[in-house]
Amino acid sequence: MNAYTALRIATGLALAIGWMPQARAFSGCTNNSLNGTYGLQFSGALTPGASSGVGGATTPDKVRSLMSAEVPGTVNIAAGFARLYLDGGGNLFGNAALTVNGSWSEGPMSGSYNVNDDCTASITLTDSSGGTQSFDGVVVNRGDGAVLRQTDKGVAVSGSMSRARNSCQSSDIGGNFGFRTGGTILNSGPFTSIGTLYLDGDGNVTVSESRFSGGVSAQVASTGTITVSLDCTVTLSLAATADGSLATYRGILVNNLKELLLVRADDGTTVTGDMMVQ
Q: How far apart are CA 199 and CA 118, in angstroms?
Protein backbone atom coordinates (compact mmCIF):
# COMPACT_ATOMS: atom_id res chain seq x y z
CA MET A 1 0.00 0.00 0.00
CA ASN A 2 1.50 3.34 -1.03
CA ALA A 3 1.29 6.50 1.01
CA TYR A 4 -1.43 8.00 -1.23
CA THR A 5 -3.73 4.97 -0.82
CA ALA A 6 -3.20 4.93 2.94
CA LEU A 7 -4.09 8.63 3.11
CA ARG A 8 -7.32 8.04 1.17
CA ILE A 9 -8.36 5.20 3.51
CA ALA A 10 -7.60 7.25 6.62
CA THR A 11 -9.55 10.23 5.24
CA GLY A 12 -12.54 7.99 4.43
CA LEU A 13 -12.58 6.52 7.92
CA ALA A 14 -12.44 9.96 9.48
CA LEU A 15 -15.37 11.14 7.37
CA ALA A 16 -17.37 7.99 8.18
CA ILE A 17 -16.80 8.42 11.89
CA GLY A 18 -17.86 12.04 11.61
CA TRP A 19 -21.19 10.99 10.08
CA MET A 20 -21.93 8.33 12.73
CA PRO A 21 -24.80 9.33 15.07
CA GLN A 22 -23.52 10.36 18.47
CA ALA A 23 -25.34 9.42 21.68
CA ARG A 24 -26.22 12.48 23.72
CA ALA A 25 -28.57 13.44 26.51
CA PHE A 26 -31.63 15.50 25.65
CA SER A 27 -31.44 18.93 27.28
CA GLY A 28 -33.48 22.07 27.60
CA CYS A 29 -36.09 20.91 30.14
CA THR A 30 -37.47 23.20 32.84
CA ASN A 31 -40.19 22.95 35.47
CA ASN A 32 -42.61 24.11 32.79
CA SER A 33 -41.87 20.90 30.84
CA LEU A 34 -44.27 19.21 33.27
CA ASN A 35 -47.34 21.39 33.26
CA GLY A 36 -50.99 20.36 33.59
CA THR A 37 -52.96 17.27 34.62
CA TYR A 38 -51.40 13.79 34.68
CA GLY A 39 -52.37 10.27 35.64
CA LEU A 40 -49.84 8.12 37.51
CA GLN A 41 -49.80 4.34 37.89
CA PHE A 42 -47.24 2.65 40.16
CA SER A 43 -46.42 -0.78 41.55
CA GLY A 44 -43.71 -2.58 43.52
CA ALA A 45 -43.13 -3.67 47.10
CA LEU A 46 -42.52 -2.47 50.64
CA THR A 47 -40.04 -4.05 53.03
CA PRO A 48 -40.31 -4.03 56.84
CA GLY A 49 -38.01 -1.00 56.94
CA ALA A 50 -40.28 1.17 54.75
CA SER A 51 -40.22 4.70 56.10
CA SER A 52 -43.19 6.30 54.32
CA GLY A 53 -46.36 5.90 52.30
CA VAL A 54 -46.36 5.13 48.60
CA GLY A 55 -47.18 7.11 45.46
CA GLY A 56 -48.65 10.02 47.39
CA ALA A 57 -50.95 7.85 49.56
CA THR A 58 -50.46 6.72 53.15
CA THR A 59 -49.69 3.08 53.93
CA PRO A 60 -52.93 1.44 55.17
CA ASP A 61 -53.05 1.31 58.98
CA LYS A 62 -53.58 -2.46 58.98
CA VAL A 63 -50.43 -3.01 56.92
CA ARG A 64 -48.34 -0.51 58.87
CA SER A 65 -49.04 -2.27 62.18
CA LEU A 66 -48.17 -5.68 60.72
CA MET A 67 -44.96 -4.43 59.09
CA SER A 68 -43.52 -3.37 62.42
CA ALA A 69 -43.32 -7.05 63.47
CA GLU A 70 -42.13 -8.50 60.16
CA VAL A 71 -38.79 -10.25 59.77
CA PRO A 72 -36.21 -8.82 57.34
CA GLY A 73 -36.78 -9.88 53.77
CA THR A 74 -40.58 -9.88 53.99
CA VAL A 75 -42.19 -8.42 50.87
CA ASN A 76 -45.45 -6.46 50.91
CA ILE A 77 -46.88 -5.99 47.41
CA ALA A 78 -48.03 -2.47 46.58
CA ALA A 79 -49.85 -0.83 43.66
CA GLY A 80 -51.88 2.31 43.06
CA PHE A 81 -52.74 5.31 40.94
CA ALA A 82 -52.88 9.07 41.33
CA ARG A 83 -54.23 12.16 39.61
CA LEU A 84 -51.76 15.04 39.72
CA TYR A 85 -51.84 18.68 38.67
CA LEU A 86 -48.44 20.31 38.10
CA ASP A 87 -48.48 24.10 37.76
CA GLY A 88 -45.34 24.47 35.61
CA GLY A 89 -43.59 26.37 38.39
CA GLY A 90 -42.59 23.54 40.71
CA ASN A 91 -45.80 23.04 42.72
CA LEU A 92 -48.29 20.17 42.52
CA PHE A 93 -51.37 18.73 44.19
CA GLY A 94 -53.72 15.81 43.64
CA ASN A 95 -55.21 12.60 45.01
CA ALA A 96 -53.69 9.12 45.31
CA ALA A 97 -55.04 5.62 45.95
CA LEU A 98 -52.95 2.68 47.16
CA THR A 99 -53.39 -1.02 47.87
CA VAL A 100 -50.79 -2.94 49.92
CA ASN A 101 -51.35 -6.68 50.34
CA GLY A 102 -54.97 -6.04 49.36
CA SER A 103 -55.64 -3.25 51.91
CA TRP A 104 -56.85 0.05 50.40
CA SER A 105 -55.92 3.63 51.24
CA GLU A 106 -56.57 6.93 49.46
CA GLY A 107 -56.47 10.66 50.07
CA PRO A 108 -55.24 14.07 48.95
CA MET A 109 -51.60 15.10 48.62
CA SER A 110 -49.52 18.12 47.73
CA GLY A 111 -45.88 18.71 46.95
CA SER A 112 -43.16 20.24 44.85
CA TYR A 113 -41.01 19.20 41.90
CA ASN A 114 -37.87 20.29 40.10
CA VAL A 115 -36.94 19.48 36.50
CA ASN A 116 -33.28 19.76 35.54
CA ASP A 117 -31.87 20.89 32.18
CA ASP A 118 -31.08 17.25 31.27
CA CYS A 119 -34.77 16.35 31.86
CA THR A 120 -34.15 14.43 35.07
CA ALA A 121 -36.48 15.44 37.88
CA SER A 122 -37.08 15.19 41.60
CA ILE A 123 -40.47 15.21 43.34
CA THR A 124 -41.44 15.53 47.00
CA LEU A 125 -44.99 14.68 48.08
CA THR A 126 -46.79 15.24 51.37
CA ASP A 127 -49.55 12.66 51.92
CA SER A 128 -52.76 13.05 53.92
CA SER A 129 -51.06 11.95 57.15
CA GLY A 130 -48.40 14.66 56.82
CA GLY A 131 -45.67 12.21 55.83
CA THR A 132 -43.26 13.09 53.02
CA GLN A 133 -42.29 10.91 50.06
CA SER A 134 -39.40 11.43 47.61
CA PHE A 135 -39.04 10.43 43.95
CA ASP A 136 -36.47 10.55 41.17
CA GLY A 137 -37.82 10.91 37.66
CA VAL A 138 -37.14 11.45 33.97
CA VAL A 139 -39.37 13.54 31.69
CA VAL A 140 -40.47 11.61 28.58
CA ASN A 141 -42.60 12.21 25.48
CA ARG A 142 -41.60 15.87 25.41
CA GLY A 143 -43.40 16.58 28.66
CA ASP A 144 -46.46 14.43 28.06
CA GLY A 145 -45.20 12.02 30.69
CA ALA A 146 -42.49 10.93 33.10
CA VAL A 147 -41.10 7.75 34.62
CA LEU A 148 -40.63 7.75 38.40
CA ARG A 149 -38.99 5.76 41.17
CA GLN A 150 -39.71 6.30 44.86
CA THR A 151 -36.43 6.67 46.75
CA ASP A 152 -37.57 6.39 50.37
CA LYS A 153 -36.05 3.76 52.65
CA GLY A 154 -37.55 0.30 52.21
CA VAL A 155 -39.75 1.29 49.23
CA ALA A 156 -39.18 -0.54 45.93
CA VAL A 157 -41.83 1.14 43.79
CA SER A 158 -41.73 2.68 40.32
CA GLY A 159 -44.33 4.03 37.93
CA SER A 160 -45.19 6.03 34.85
CA MET A 161 -47.06 9.29 34.50
CA SER A 162 -49.08 10.26 31.40
CA ARG A 163 -50.91 13.43 30.45
CA ALA A 164 -54.65 13.51 31.22
CA ARG A 165 -57.48 15.87 30.41
CA ASN A 166 -58.69 18.40 32.95
CA SER A 167 -62.26 17.09 32.76
CA CYS A 168 -64.15 14.09 31.32
CA GLN A 169 -67.62 12.57 31.04
CA SER A 170 -68.95 9.07 30.42
CA SER A 171 -69.88 9.79 26.82
CA ASP A 172 -66.22 10.60 26.07
CA ILE A 173 -65.28 6.93 25.82
CA GLY A 174 -66.84 4.13 23.82
CA GLY A 175 -66.04 1.37 21.37
CA ASN A 176 -63.51 -1.43 21.51
CA PHE A 177 -60.54 -1.61 23.86
CA GLY A 178 -57.84 -4.17 24.54
CA PHE A 179 -56.58 -4.68 28.08
CA ARG A 180 -54.15 -6.56 30.25
CA THR A 181 -53.95 -7.04 34.03
CA GLY A 182 -51.39 -8.58 36.35
CA GLY A 183 -50.70 -8.97 40.04
CA THR A 184 -51.58 -11.10 43.06
CA ILE A 185 -54.75 -12.18 44.84
CA LEU A 186 -54.39 -12.99 48.55
CA ASN A 187 -54.72 -16.72 49.32
CA SER A 188 -54.98 -17.46 45.59
CA GLY A 189 -51.66 -16.45 44.05
CA PRO A 190 -50.71 -14.82 40.75
CA PHE A 191 -53.41 -13.25 38.59
CA THR A 192 -53.01 -12.24 34.94
CA SER A 193 -55.37 -11.64 32.05
CA ILE A 194 -55.65 -10.18 28.57
CA GLY A 195 -58.79 -9.51 26.60
CA THR A 196 -61.14 -7.10 24.93
CA LEU A 197 -63.81 -4.74 26.24
CA TYR A 198 -66.69 -3.10 24.45
CA LEU A 199 -68.06 0.15 25.88
CA ASP A 200 -71.43 1.20 24.49
CA GLY A 201 -71.01 4.88 25.38
CA ASP A 202 -73.85 4.74 27.94
CA GLY A 203 -71.78 3.18 30.74
CA ASN A 204 -72.28 -0.50 29.90
CA VAL A 205 -69.35 -2.88 29.41
CA THR A 206 -68.94 -6.31 27.81
CA VAL A 207 -65.70 -8.21 28.40
CA SER A 208 -64.06 -11.34 26.98
CA GLU A 209 -60.73 -12.39 28.46
CA SER A 210 -58.12 -15.10 28.79
CA ARG A 211 -57.35 -15.34 32.52
CA PHE A 212 -54.93 -17.13 34.85
CA SER A 213 -56.17 -17.21 38.44
CA GLY A 214 -55.91 -19.71 41.28
CA GLY A 215 -53.41 -21.72 39.26
CA VAL A 216 -55.88 -22.30 36.41
CA SER A 217 -56.21 -20.78 32.93
CA ALA A 218 -59.71 -20.09 31.63
CA GLN A 219 -61.74 -18.08 29.16
CA VAL A 220 -64.02 -15.69 31.08
CA ALA A 221 -66.90 -13.51 29.88
CA SER A 222 -68.16 -10.61 32.01
CA THR A 223 -70.57 -7.71 31.87
CA GLY A 224 -70.64 -4.57 33.94
CA THR A 225 -70.60 -0.80 34.11
CA ILE A 226 -68.09 2.01 33.86
CA THR A 227 -68.48 5.39 35.56
CA VAL A 228 -66.36 8.36 34.48
CA SER A 229 -66.04 11.22 36.97
CA LEU A 230 -65.55 14.86 36.05
CA ASP A 231 -61.86 14.66 37.05
CA CYS A 232 -61.30 11.76 34.57
CA THR A 233 -61.04 9.11 37.28
CA VAL A 234 -62.99 5.94 36.55
CA THR A 235 -64.72 3.06 38.35
CA LEU A 236 -65.09 -0.18 36.37
CA SER A 237 -67.33 -2.87 37.91
CA LEU A 238 -67.54 -6.35 36.35
CA ALA A 239 -69.46 -9.56 37.05
CA ALA A 240 -68.39 -12.87 35.49
CA THR A 241 -71.21 -14.46 33.47
CA ALA A 242 -70.46 -18.02 34.61
CA ASP A 243 -70.34 -17.64 38.38
CA GLY A 244 -71.23 -14.02 39.15
CA SER A 245 -67.85 -13.28 40.76
CA LEU A 246 -67.25 -9.54 41.05
CA ALA A 247 -64.26 -7.34 40.28
CA THR A 248 -63.95 -3.58 40.79
CA TYR A 249 -61.22 -1.44 39.26
CA ARG A 250 -60.37 2.21 39.87
CA GLY A 251 -58.23 4.31 37.56
CA ILE A 252 -57.74 7.37 35.40
CA LEU A 253 -58.08 8.15 31.70
CA VAL A 254 -54.88 9.39 30.02
CA ASN A 255 -53.33 9.82 26.58
CA ASN A 256 -56.24 11.86 25.19
CA LEU A 257 -58.79 9.22 26.31
CA LYS A 258 -56.97 6.45 24.43
CA GLU A 259 -55.75 4.67 27.57
CA LEU A 260 -57.06 3.86 31.03
CA LEU A 261 -54.66 3.13 33.91
CA LEU A 262 -56.29 0.68 36.34
CA VAL A 263 -55.83 -0.68 39.86
CA ARG A 264 -58.11 -3.35 41.31
CA ALA A 265 -59.86 -2.03 44.41
CA ASP A 266 -61.27 -5.26 45.90
CA ASP A 267 -60.02 -6.38 49.32
CA GLY A 268 -57.24 -8.97 49.14
CA THR A 269 -56.11 -7.99 45.63
CA THR A 270 -53.02 -6.16 44.38
CA VAL A 271 -53.56 -6.00 40.64
CA THR A 272 -52.81 -3.31 38.05
CA GLY A 273 -53.92 -3.04 34.45
CA ASP A 274 -54.05 -1.01 31.27
CA MET A 275 -56.94 -0.55 28.87
CA MET A 276 -56.09 0.80 25.39
CA VAL A 277 -58.27 1.81 22.48
CA GLN A 278 -58.17 -0.56 19.50
A: 41
